[in-house]
Amino acid sequence: MIPFLARRLLTGLATLLLASVVVFAVLEILPGDPALLMLGMNASPEALATLREQLGLNDPVMVRYVSWILGLLTGDFGRSFTYSSPVIDLIAERAVVSLPLAVISLLLSTAIAIPVGIFAAARRGKAADTLSMGAAQVGVAVPNFWFALILVYIFAVWLQLVPAGGFPGWKAGLWPGLKALILPSVALALPQAAILARVTRSAMLEVLGEDYIRTARAKGMPRRHVLWRHALRNAMIPVLTILGLQFAFLLAGTIIIENVFYLPGLGRLVFQAITQRDLIVVEGVVMLLVASVIFVNIVVDICYALVDPRLRSNA
């Protein structure tokens, strides 16, 4: 198990290093002067010179890249020009919204999708299977911001059970904070649950045709035990793959939902930084999201090995 983990960690570090080169290079090849892009066309020469010095734009490219990497390793993501505060503080402030939102959405998506996928696979070709997969197809086709608008109208405007937007902060209490994340979590979870349910059904159908499943049924094992104890575990590899991809999407792809619900998360921070041309913030947040995706992929690989021990020696 230790060699398996070591290989995965080394692969993750190499991927992160390559990603840092790509992110840095993309900002380097952008046309125009970054200082002029951030300050605007009407900026004075003195202000431009000061910002170039602050950003280190007068140094050679390799010096700037090494300095940036060393800063990331020590937690120095630079200082935001727009907010006049360290980027790491902005990220920490927004992550306490985006991370719980992504976790709640993933848990909700999993709690819906896996039972639905197993239910549909166990009733293949029947009306329940058709209805379940038809609903899943609708969930895949409808964008999450449309779900968000419908949820706001029903539960916030009509029934007035939850707030339509905004976030009171965790200092206001656990329940007010969770209450503000209910609708965004559901809006994010429903399309992802539809995708995961279809994948779970397909994986279960492949496993249910195996000989050991027929043997278990022939021995009189209850159908529920066959589905949940034997079939599901052997169908988990593709399900875990989708779960890893979904968590990465939920963490990095919440820009639309956070703007619909006015949540002060990482997605909204990136959106505001792009519109305000705060490239330092964009650079820092993108690298953090890349690192999060790589970390999730490593966790998924470890889960592969736990589910199927044969992968430890073959990986």
Automatic annotation (TrEMBL):
InterPro entries found in the cross-reference section: BPD_transp_1_N (IPR045621), MetI-like (IPR000515), MetI-like_sf (IPR035906)
Pfam families named in the record: BPD_transp_1, BPD_transp_1_N
Membrane found in the keyword field: yes
Record domain ABC transmembrane type-1: where: 95-298
Source domain of life: Bacteria
Subcellular location: Cell membrane
Lipid bilayer topology: Multi-pass membrane protein
Membrane-spanning residues: 99-122, 134-161, 181-199, 231-257, 285-307
Keywords in alphabetical order: Cell membrane, Membrane, Transmembrane, Transmembrane helix, Transport
An example Gene Ontology CC term for this record: plasma membrane
GO MF assignments: dipeptide transmembrane transporter activity
CDD domains: TM_PBP2
First-listed, main subcellular location of the protein, grouped into a coarse class: membrane
Family assignment from sequence similarity: Belongs to the binding-protein-dependent transport system permease family.
Protein name in the entry: ABC transporter permease
